Amino acid sequence: MSTEEELQSNVSVASSSPTSNCISRNTLGGLKEHNYLGLSDCSSVGSSTLSPLAEDDKATISLKATELTLGFPGSQSPAKDTELNLLSPAKLDEKPFFPLLPSKDEICSSSQKNNASGNKRGYSDTMDQFAEAKSSVYTEKNWMFPEAAATQSVTKKDVPQNIPKGQSSTTNNSSSPPAAKAQIVGWPPVRSYRKNTLATTCKNSDEVDGRPGSGALFVKVSMDGAPYLRKVDLRSYTNYGELSSALEKMFTTFTLGQCGSNGAAGKDMLSETKLKDLLNGKDYVLTYEDKDGDWMLVGDVPWEMFIDVCKKLKIMKGCDAIGLAAAPRAMEKSKMRA
Amino acid sequence: MGLRFPPKVLEHILSFIDSNEDRNSVSLVCKSWFETERKTRKRVFVGNCYAVSPAAVTRRFPEMRSLTLKGKPHFADYNLVPDGWGGYAWPWIEAMAAKSSSLEEIRMKRMVVTDECLEKIAASFKDFKVLVLTSCEGFSTDGIAAIAATCRNLRVLELRECIVEDLGGDWLSYFPESSTSLVSLDFSCLDSEVKISDLERLVSRSPNLKSLKLNPAVTLDGLVSLLRCAPQLTELGTGSFAAQLKPEAFSKLSEAFSNCKQLQSLSGLWDVLPEYLPALYSVCPGLTSLNLSYATVRMPDLVELLRRCSKLQKLWVMDLIEDKGLEAVASYCKELRELRVFPSEPDLDATNIPLTEQGLVFVSKGCRKLESVLYFCVQFTNAALFTIARKRPNLKCFRLCVIEPFAPDYKTNEPLDKGFKAIAEGCRDLRRLSVSGLLSDKAFKYIGKHAKKVRMLSIAFAGDSDLMLHHLLSGCQSLKKLEIRDCPFGDTALLEHAAKLETMRSLWMSSCFVSFGACKLLSQKMPRLNVEVIDEHPPESRPESSPVERIYIYRTVAGPRMDTPEFVWTIHKNPENGVSHLAIK
User: Fold this and answer.
1) Comparing C-alpha atoms, which of B478, B434, B474, B436 is closest to residue B458?
2) Which parts of B186-321 fold into alpha helices (H)?
3) Which one is predicted more confidently, B116 or A263?
4) What is the mean pLDDT of each run of 10 residues along chain B (585 residues)?
5) Cross-chain Cβ contact B240/A204 below 8 Å
6) Positive or negative torsion for Cα B297, B303, B307, B312
7) What CA–CA distance (Å, rounded) separates B329 from A188?
8) C-alpha–C-alpha distance, residues A283 and A278, integer Å
């Protein structure tokens, strides 16, 4: 199959998902950055950290992205990962498959810690053991991998990877800064009760010592109509943009619409126009419960203040949120500050 | 001609048999033994609430006094089971209220319990004595208040790591003044403050109170006055220690503890400052169980405490104990049977904590009675595993979590296959095993071959192919629960060993490569298995060969369940019906 046909077939598989309605069937050269879930065309969709791509780059990258290769996700370098956002299908969890294992080919160039090159057999080896009929199973799955790799890099803030003692010898490539690690759902296998308690304990002990809290700050995120309740660590984001991108990723199957597009990179408060957009009939808005138990619209206070007061997050339908007292107040506040 | 026991004789003999496994065997001998057994069984254990219907259980065991139920799969603890999956207590409570009104004890784990359930329990069982809820959710403090208010002979009320909607601390005041029967109270997972004076009065009028576990909202002062009211406690879970240290506070605390001469188990200790630890020294020599896993205390304060605990059998601690702390444990705590070391930063980006495989090696060498291990560590070596297996062949539970997925032996860069082989081969009585780190199919060949008594096996990020699953399902004879995540095996092994699945309680697989087609086949082949596909996309929306996200397969005599949410599909036995999910409730 030529790569173009592969692209087409990838596209058609993605489109079988009910929520995708925005598919580009352009030729490879003109492949536009589309999210197949029908999310907004705004370029900040899940990628406020992306820089605009040159046309040529896009062509090369999309070629690479559509190549059906056998290998674990996360085997591409981080730079490529962000581009692979182009092909992300609906995925409720941001959990990637096999995020950290480099494929055999990439072992030497990978900056990740686990370079067990001779020992881990890639899929190409295991493939030989099975009947021909099964090969389609593996090829079918590979289109999910790029998505998986993509989700891992964009949401986590860039922190230098801490390499425990004794492991630095196994890292071949120490010149480039290692990628921030993805959070894998449910790993390490520590009960959320324990994680949350430790987070609180950490915060309390920091307060007692007078140091600013540095532990994780988990808040629940719920969404109208979603069966899933998620938790996010507010301290792992530095502004509203990052938070909304992350939330968008988590709840993408529920067509967030413009909710995620308020993340102008670098700003920690919403501009008046963005707020207007948010409230004027867009599908969902992001709200939070503050320390007093009131539900407020996210974005009306500076980020630092927000993480201090936010107890819970909720993604509400836009029409339900109109009544929120915060809305007119927020508009006024942002007018005052402008 | 066979011997026949008159039923009365058999009944008498059976009254000495407590173990349910034995009773299950007894009930298989013949019809009359089945009948006698079922009429005399008092304690019923249902390991999977969907394996059998509540009606069937109440019908079979009319003399049931105690019921233990487990709901969600174990991996729900780690957020791998979406909210709303199931595990509802209501149908059980309803059935028991109608048919088993002399029920006295209910213990539930990982189930959804509503206030309605709790109110029903309070209203229906006149002599209700014991309620233990572990990792449950769905109820509020109002439900607890109902239990407190109505169950006059309540002895045990324990809420262990539950998610409770906390509407305030009033629930405690609902224990009537006439209530004097409490033996154990655990409200450590609640957030709100309770009135200390109410608690003091309750404790003072409960002479049989042996176990008290407070929540973090109880202050040090509160703790001191409670200890004065109940010096007979054998188990104590403290409140929060996060108060500024004042000299009088310290001496009061010290004195209160020194009066608790029967204290054997200590837990809680949230936010404990190292300066407070000496207040505990007086109880250390008598302690058999110590849970420091929420105490952010570091070395060397930890050692000062632990070296006084010569009778310690169970120790839960964080990795802040470091290798040298474990070395001290190995030399002072010679009675140790169970060790759990939790990560202080449960994150993949964990910073450098000097806890390595060496810590566990120390304990394995020094503590001859060690039989249960849960150990989180960033990386491990085969050599350490060899030593552990050689020194501790009496291990019954070995759960190693190498936090770095796919991490090889960091000294030799090899997979940990040989190390786990040593464990499986050497520890003949191993009942529970969790593996991690870089593992090839070979590791599972060894496990299948040697781990004959393993009943529960947990695997993550391991193996290369279907062979892995094949080895396990064909080898592990005693396997009852298998849970796997992120492993690259597919349909073949699963279908080949379909029959094995009926001998097990359940199989969980997530992020593996089992296709929807295989799930359908499996369900058709095995009528007494529920094959549940948990996926946010309807399985029919994708090609049959595409993998499903999560599968939960369990044996059942109750047929497909009726309470699945929209993201769970139970595959019908009749291929024409495809899949179904009926709306919840």
Assistant:
1) B434
2) 196-204, 220-229, 247-258, 301-306
3) B116
4) 74 92 94 93 96 97 97 95 95 95 97 97 96 97 96 97 93 95 97 94 97 94 94 95 77 94 95 89 97 90 95 96 96 98 77 85 98 95 97 98 92 96 97 96 96 97 93 96 94 94 96 93 92 87 89 95 90 59 31
5) yes
6) positive
7) 25
8) 9
3-state secondary structure of B491: helix
Backbone angles phi, psi at A163, to 5 degrees: -100, 115
Would you say A254 and A265 are in contact if contact means Cβ atoms under 8 Å apart?
A: no
> Å from A39 to nearest chain B CA?
18
Q: Which amino acid is at B41?
A: R
DSSP string for residues in B205-217: T-TT--EEE--TT
- List beta partners, residue B373: B339, B398
Asked if residue B58 lies in contact with residue B95, where contact means CB atoms within 8 angstroms, the answer is: yes
Mutation target to probe the B interface, by most B beta carbons within 10 A, among A17, A119, A123 is A119
How far, in Å, CA of A324 to CA of A296, rounded?
Answer: 6
The count of other CB atoms within 10 Å of the CB of residue B67 is 23
Three-state DSSP at B481 gives strand
- Do B342 and B316 meet the contact criterion of CB atoms below 8 Å apart? yes
E-strand stretches of chain A: 218-223, 230-233, 284-289, 295-297, 312-317
Interaxial angle between packed helices B31-40 and B7-14, expressed in degrees from 0 to 180 and rounded to the nearest 10: 50
Q: What is the pTM of this model?
A: 0.69
Tokens (6 digits) for B83:
């909210």
- What residues are paired with B290 via a beta bridge? B266, B315
| Residue A206, amino acid | D
B465 touches chain A (CB under 8 A): yes
Smallest CA–CA distance from B510 into chain A, residue: A97
3-state secondary structure of B482: strand
What DSSP line would sit under A312-338, residue for residue? EEEEEEHHHHTT-THHHHHHHHHHHH-
Closest CA to B568 of B161, B50, B70, B47: B50
Which letter does DSSP use for residue B338 in this model? E
Question: Would you call B376 and A164 a contact, using CB atoms and an 8 Å cutoff?
Answer: no
Burial class of residue B250 (count of CB atoms within 10 Å of its CB; 0-12, 13-18, 19+): middle
Strand intervals (E) in B419-460: 432-435, 456-460
SS (H, E, C) B63-76: CCCEEEEECCCHHH
- Give SS3 for B201: helix
- CB-based contacts of A12, cutoff 8 Å, min separation 6: none
Low-confidence winner among A192-206, A320-334, B526-540 (lowest mean pLDDT): A320-334
- What DSSP element (H or E) covers A118? none
Higher pLDDT, B149 or A249: B149
C-alpha–C-alpha distance, residues B39 and B65, integer Å = 12
Which is nearest to A229 in space by CA: B570, B112, B92, B344?
Answer: B112
Q: Are the beta carbons of A90 and B537 separated by less than 8 Å?
A: yes
Looking at residue B56, its pLDDT comes to 97
In the stretch 11-70 of chain B, residues with CB closer than 8 A to chain A read: none
Q: Which value, to the nearest 10 degrees, does the dihedral of the CA atoms of residues B418, B419, B421, B427 take? A: 160
The DSSP symbol for A46 reads T
Q: How far from B362 is each of B306, B367, B380, B388, CA to CA, in Å?
A: 15, 8, 14, 9
- Substitution target in B467, B536, B585 with the highest count of A β-carbons within 10 Å is B536
**pLDDT tens-digit readout, A28-57:** 344 344 433 333 334 333 333 334 434 444
